[in-house]
Amino acid sequence: MLHLRVISPAEQTAVLVRVLEADPGVTHLTVARGIAVRPPGDLVQADIAREAANKVLADIKALGIVHSGGLTLGPVEAVLSDAADRAVRAAPGDANDAVVWEELLEETHEESSLNVSFLAFLTIACLLASIGVATNSPVTIVGAMVVGPEFGPLAALSVALVRRNWRLARRSIIALAVSFPVAMLITLAATLVWVRLGWITTEGVIGAHDVDFIYQVGPFSLVVALLAGGAGMLSLVTAKSSALIGVFISVTTVPAAGYAVVAATLGQWHRAFGSAGQLALNLVGIVVAGVIVLELRLRTGDQSRPIGRLKPTIGRRTPRER
Length: 322
Known about the structure:
Blueprint: E1 2-8, H1 10-22, E2 26-36, E3 41-48, H2 53-63, H3 65-68, E4 70-75, H4 82-90, H5 101-111, H6 116-135, H7 138-147, H8 151-163, H9 166-197, H10 202-206, H11 219-237, H12 243-248, H13 254-265, H14 269-299
Antiparallel strand pairs: 1-3, 1-4, 2-3
Helix pairs in contact: 1-2, 5-8, 6-7, 6-9, 6-13, 8-9, 8-14, 9-13, 11-14, 13-14
Transmembrane segments: 114-135, 141-162, 174-197, 217-237, 244-267, 279-298
Organism: Nocardia mangyaensis
Protein name: DUF389 domain-containing protein
């Protein structure tokens, strides 16, 4: 279940309570009159079956309370209540299949932010990938896969395409379009230094057969990207964050970027172009798989439908916090 907390202007509280009482997926409804200070108003709280959340949020949005008051939505770790059990049974669909769109939008909105931390993680990942290529170290390549933060904006782009949220799509594309070139340019500078020092050699890279898979594009490259993207999106919508680690170490995005830089520095252009192709294929495959998963959730297990975007006041949490 999810816990809803609403600060409601006093003149709208009665209508809000009637809306919540009318929904069978809502329970544990409480009202504290005049307790809110900023913004002023009443505090209304309730527990909501996850599969009923989209409709409840849509009804609250229709009242305009997100502009005159505010709301937060968070998970309930454990509920011991017959009333809660009845609310879950009365709500349409299955809780494990429900996509709470505002929750997903806020999470992906945060993960798609282009900031110093995002650039730092991606740069470190690209540097690790270049070292893995130079030392023929699959373990270092896996480390680069795990450190890379690129799945966040890719997932956000998938959500944006399904929701027709072009602002979020633009934000995600900018994050990817800026961060990868910056990270690769920094990696290029470091690679030039390492080549000059003799730490990276053409013979060493050509002989690094354990990491040849990075630049060798084949039909399974697309299959793996689609499977990983689908698993990643499922992990987001079901709050099973542990599955994301498997996603990170199965796609060849950051390693391909690092290999392309090293190969280009040494004049191995066929390997550089192959790595660039691998990078593009994985990026596209992950986004396509994310869109497919969300569309399938809408058409099968998830009884709810996307609602208009609320003002971003819902609390943001990482998967670990959920």
